[in-house]
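Standup notes
- DV: blocked on the single-chain target, sequence here:
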Amino acid sequence: MQHKIIYRHWQPGDDDAILELLVPSGQLSSENSYRNKFRDWSIEAEGICLAFVGGKAVGHILGMSDSFLIEQKIQKFGRVGLVHVNPNMRRRGIATHLMHQLHAYFEKKGYRGSILDTDEEAAIRLYQKVGYQILTRELRTQLAPNPNASQLTWTETNLKNLSALPQLDERWAKRNFPMSCDRKSIKVNQYNMGGYRVLRQCQNIVGYARWDEPSEYYRHGLIRDPIAPDVDPMEVIASVQAAIPTTRTWEAAEGGRYEAPLRAYGCTFEPTTTVIMLSSFGQEIDLTGYHRTAWW
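- DV (later): unblocked, structure below
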């Protein structure tokens, strides 16, 4: 006898069944991070959409809240993560049903749209089926050093720097999308600031960037598009060249603020498998005049 698929949102006592589904997928940083998910103010039980068969979790989607500066005001969006269906239960419409369920929750909350990223072709087709469009693709290039390229300096981030970064985010978000502007969520904090550097003009902080030094995982290191709203992109590129002792990998977004200037420097890009996708609720979002940002 084939069991019926039951769809519902998260309820107390579900975590063991959910972890049995999600742990083999490799998407979790740790089991405890999932069990403590509601410490994150942006996650609600109704935003966790589940599919069960015979008491066993076979499908999962997590919806979160985020804010973006768009159409001249900060608006709420839904952000989608941890999408997984048991491999033995695929091609039965489970992921599609869960996405529709999550969108109903987002629309009930009054969100302007939904945003997600993925690196799987099958997932891209699923999301397009439920109304998403590709917003941008992540690109990577190699940037060579030039020690005399700039008077701007990159320094390690410390606690005194952190208060300046949300202001840079908001100014950046006026011309770049998607860029989180949620004042309840602190992107760079005392626990992760070692992975960021700040850009200084004399003593003033004029930008910052996610900055990974070379490692086993990133052979040439990895620098993400810097958030520097008031600095000419060519000067930002030159400042990075002045700061790096050897060639570094630069991660950009297709259609981003740095793509054309990097190409002008002679850099060539290789697309990664990661795309960012957007679905708007109601009137379509007008992104005319916005650069793209691979923000996560």
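- Follow-up: Residues 138 and 253 are 5 Å apart (CA to CA).
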